[in-house]
Structures are given as C-alpha cells and as structure tokens.
Design a protein that fits this description.
Blueprint lengths: L2 H7 L8 H7 L11 E4 L4 H4 L3 H10 L7 E7 L2 E6 L1 H15 L13 E5 L14 H16 L3 E5 L7 H13 L2 H22 L2 H15 L3 H24 L17 H10 L3 E4 L2 E4 L9 E4 L7 H16 L3 E5 L5 H13 L8 E4 L4 E3 L14 H19 L6 H18 L7 E3 L1 H4 L7 H18 L13 H11 L1 H10 L4 H20 L7 H25 L8
Helix pairs in contact: 1-2, 5-18, 6-15, 7-8, 7-9, 8-10, 9-10, 11-12, 14-15, 17-20, 17-21, 18-20, 18-21, 19-20, 20-21
Length: about 550
C-alpha cells in the first residue's frame, strides 16, 4: 500500500491537490512522533490560518481506521501512526505474492519512452567518461519497463564526420588488416591517434577526400567504414553484456543523412532559416540563446541538423510519450536550442523531449579521456574492479565456491553503483576502494546484505509463513516502513529521471535490515516471532534484489 497516497486522499485542504499533500508528507526523525508527518506551514498562506490551527482542524476531521491507528497535532505538524499489524500483513503479504514484480505497475501502459544513451563513437573504445550515460540510461530503461512503459533504447552511434576520412587515411598509410583484426578497436584507435599526432596539411586534405568518398557512396571507402563499424559493435556489445545494457536501435547519425532535407525544407517554409555569413541559422536571440547553426557556409550539416531529423523520425516512428537524451551537462545549450527550434516549428511534442544531464567521471588521480590517446578505458576499470573484488572475497571467505563468478558480479556491480549512487548531475571521483567497501554506501554492502538474508533463510529450512495479527517491534517496523516505500521510490525515480533514488533506497533498506538482524534473534526465535522474522527477511531479500536488478546489478547468493 502507498501510505502517503492513502493519507493524502483522506485529507481535504482547500487550494492543495492530493499530489501536493502526498509530496509534503515526510517521515519524522523520531519514530515515537509517528510514521508520517504533514508540516502545515506551507498551507498557512492559502488557508489564511496558523499552522497550529490547521493541524488541529485536520486532526479533528480525520477518522482513524484499521490502517491509520492514531493522529496527533503537535506544533503545526499533523502526525500519523500506522497500525503495525496491518502494515506487516499488507506489505509482506504483497511482496511474497508479487515476488520479482514487487514495485512494478502498469502506469505506463500504452505509452512509449525513447531513451537515447551511451551513443558510442565508431572506432573509439569506451573510456571512463562513457560510464554515466551508459548506466544511467540502462537503469532508466529498466525502470520505465518495470512501470509498464514500452521502452525503446537507442544507441545514437557517432558514425558521421571527417574523423572517418582520417581513419581511412591512417589505415591506408600505416594499417595492416591482420593486425587490425587481431587488435580490434584498440588497433583502429591507435591509427587514429597517430594520424592526429602526425598529420600535415597534405594528410588532412587526404582525409577530407576519403570522407567525401564515403558520402558519395564509394564502394571501397564504405567497405572499410563498415568493417571499422563491425569491429566497434563487436567490442561494445561485450561491454554492454557485462553491464546488463540493452538497446533496441543502433540508428546513428549516418542513418539520418537522407532525413535532414525535409526538416531543412520545413524550416525554410516556416521562415525560420536565416543566412548569417553564408551559413543557415535559426535565430534564437530573443530566447536568450545564440543562433542554432543548421548548415555551414559550404552546405554541410551539423549535429543540430541530424538531431532535429532524429527527433522528428522518432516521433513519427514510435509516437513517444517522452524522449530522453542521457547526455553530459556540457550539452545543455545544444539541447535547449534543439528543443526550442522544434517548438518554433510547431511541434507540440517538443515539450516531451528531456535532456537528462549528468556530471563528469574521473579517477582519483584526475585521469580522464583526452584526444591525444591518454585515456582511461572503461574495460580496464571494469577488469580492475573485478580483480580487486576477487582479492577481497578471497581474503574474507577463501573457501567460497564460484569465487570468480561472484567476483565478477560484485566488481561489475560496484562499477555501476559507483556511477548511480549520487545525484546524476554531480561530478564523480571514482575510487576503487570506496566502491568495493563492504561497510560503505555501496552495492557490495547491499549485495552482502542479500547474501546474509539468503543465508538466514537457507539455515532456517522453513517455508515462509506470515502469521496473522502480528505486532512488530520497533526494529521490525523500521524495515517494514522501508519495504512499503519501494513502489513509490521506483515511480519517483522515473518521474525525476534519477536512478540514484533506487540506489540510495537499497542502501537505506540494507542498513535497516542489518540493524534488525543484529538487534533481533531470528533463527533462535520461536513461534509467530520466528515465522514473522523469516518472512521479513524473505521480503527484504526480494525487495533488495528487485532494486539492484533495476540498476543492472546482479545478486550473488553467497559472498
């Protein structure tokens, strides 16, 4: 049950909607005050009364029942206590019945959400800077699907531009087919870096000519390009598989080559295109933005041209409810311009386009990707986390079976969680020691809690039976309240495009369960108490598993 919703639907406050009341409800810092509290200060202005009077009047008009056992008004706060026996039966019963669907819903039924994320560049390996877009987008993909939406994961490949002319020029000059086949994407990248380091004017002209050949349909140039593309996709799909990432479309920039002209024609027809120093622009000065460049003076298209064509294509193809772009905050202006141009074109659905911006990722030594070949490859970060996870697990539990597989699950989970735990817009300093801590706010801590719960259930040797009319103690109640909050947390994560809500929820639930585990006997308890605590453990394990799965993280049975 969504207790916030239940309470807010039974409160009548003039000038405030049910959603606003629900959003205002909070958990008091002291459980003795109640399970939920409504601060009435924010309603004083619209009701023209003091918060103390508002709280008292609302208390007098609220009837307690089998769900809400007590209501009190204290210093302008309206406090609610939930019937703990009802809470126990409702929450645990639902989790045990729904299993891996607990927290899901059908609110997205009939609606499509497109998510543009990761967007790998052809012939360039993943560096650590690609981590956030990949795992944030992957988590949002799973979250929306869990809520009943039809999700379309789009990898908007960077497969257009003069860099591919440079790559062909470099391959023609220094490349060897067998070495490239053997070295894969890293061999291609080495050629590209070498070209950028050594290119003179003649070589740059050569690169432009090769790109012209690609655009004009030259068979040999395009065969080389498609070969580079296949090597890239072979490489990135292995990484995606390890990170539990899914895509439904790999339509990249090149895909929209023949779809740009209708957009350009429409801009002209609506008198939105202006000439500026030979280039074609959409003037956005009155909206506080620089002009959006559509065509260069030589007639060449730009990112904006292709992104406009992509947005129109996606709307026509998927009729999306929302289209999300999981792209770094450095592109804030670009997306503001694109969305505004579409709005000026009369596309009412422009309001459904969302730039999901995120911060940068660096290692503790400050290392990040550069164009000079000094890069931190994502695959190396992943491998190092798995290696370190193995060392930690081997030290803590040397007799553990399948240590390699468990280390992979733990290490890769740490990489994902490390990028998802903080608010997405924050810059991240990635620390191997921090993300692999068994004691910190990490996926390892949550996974270890799952292994602990699984061990309790395994040792009990009993099927979970939920006793009727059980009155939980304080520690049990804290776990119950956390469990009941999961469905609402999933919805809020989707509404605010913020997977960190689920990551933080998982840590909070794990902390509450571990306090209960330490303070309360489980296996040596008796009767209804033992049955309830085993059921609570099962429900916690299931909910933590569901939360981690939504983030793309595996759940080992033992650690």
């Amino acid at each position: 049950m969504d207790y916030k919703k239940y309470i807010s639907e039974r409160l009548k406050i003039d000038g405030a909607t049910c959603e606003e009341i629900s959003a205002a409800l909070a958990v008091p810092p002291d459980p003795a005050m109640g399970d939920y509290a409504l601060p009435c200060f924010k309603f004083a202005k619209i009701m023209k009364k003091s918060p103390v009077i508002i709280a008292e009047e609302l208390k007098n008009g609220f009837t307690t029942d089998e769900i809400i056992s007590e209501v009190s008004a204290v210093n302008g706060y309206l406090n609610f206590k939930i019937n703990k026996s009802s809470l126990a039966g409702n929450v645990i019963g639902r989790i045990l019945a729904e299993g891996d669907r607990y927290g899901s819903s059908d609110i997205g039924k009939g609606k499509t959400v497109c998510i543009d994320y990761s967007s790998v560049n052809i012939a360039k390996p993943f560096h650590i800077g690609h981590l956030s877009t990949t795992v944030i987008g992957g988590a949002l993909y799973k979250i929306y699907k869990f809520l009943g939406y039809k999700t379309v994961g789009i990898n908007h490949l960077g497969d257009y531009g003069t860099q591919f002319g440079k790559l062909i020029a470099a391959y023609r000059r220094w490349g060897d087919k067998d070495e490239v086949e053997k070295g894969g994407i890293h061999a291609i990248n080495d050629l590209y870096v070498r070209f950028n380091n050594e290119a003179d004017d003649k070589m740059q002209e050569e690169a432009r000519e090769y790109f012209r050949l690609i655009e004009s349909g030259d068979r040999e140039a395009n065969e080389l390009f498609e070969w580079f593309k296949s090597l890239t996709l072979e490489y990135v799909k292995k990484i995606y598989e390890k990170l539990n990432i899914t895509f439904d479309s790999y339509a990249g920039e090149r895909f929209y080559t023949d779809k740009m002209q209708p957009v350009i024609d429409e801009l002209k027809a609506k008198n939105l295109l202006k000439e500026s120093e030979g280039a074609q622009i959409v003037d956005l000065e009155e909206y506080g933005m620089p002009p959006c460049l559509i065509l260069r003076s030589d007639g060449a298209s730009l990112y904006a041209t292709r992104d406009l064509a992509a947005a129109v294509y996606r709307k026509n193809t998927y009729d999306f409810y929302k289209c999300l772009y999981v792209v770094a905050y450095q592109q804030n202006l670009h997306f503001k311009q694109i969305f505004k141009v579409l709005e000026l074109m009369g596309k009412e659905w422009a309001k459904d386009l969302v730039h999901v911006a995120y911060g940068m990722v660096s290692l503790e030594d400050g290392a990040m990707s550069t164009r000079k070949g000094k890069v931190v490859w994502l695959e190396d970060v992943m491998a190092k986390c798995v290696e370190k996870a193995y060392a930690v697990i081997n030290e803590k539990n040397p007799a553990l079976e399948n240590k390699e597989q468990i280390a992979s699950t733990v290490g890769l989970g740490a990489v994902i969680f490390g990028a998802l735990y903080n608010n997405k817009i924050k810059d991240i300093v990635f620390s191997y020691d921090k993300v692999l801590s068994f004691d910190g706010e990490t996926s390892v801590y949550v996974q270890y809690t799952c292994a602990r719960a699984n061990s309790v259930l395994s040792k009990s040797g009993k099927a979970c039976v939920l006793p009727e009319n059980y009155s939980p103690c304080a520690q049990e109640s804290e776990v119950l309240k956390a469990l009941s909050a999961f469905p609402g947390t999933v919805i809020e994560a989707a509404e605010k495009y913020e997977p960190s809500f689920i990551a933080r929820y998982a840590v909070d639930l794990a902390q509450k369960y571990n306090k209960f585990y330490i303070d309360c006997k489980i296996l040596t308890a008796e009767g209804d108490t033992k049955d309830f605590r085993l059921a609570l453990t099962r429900a916690t394990l299931q909910t933590l598993s569901n939360a981690l799965t939504l983030l793309g993280i595996g759940v080992p049975e033992k650690m």
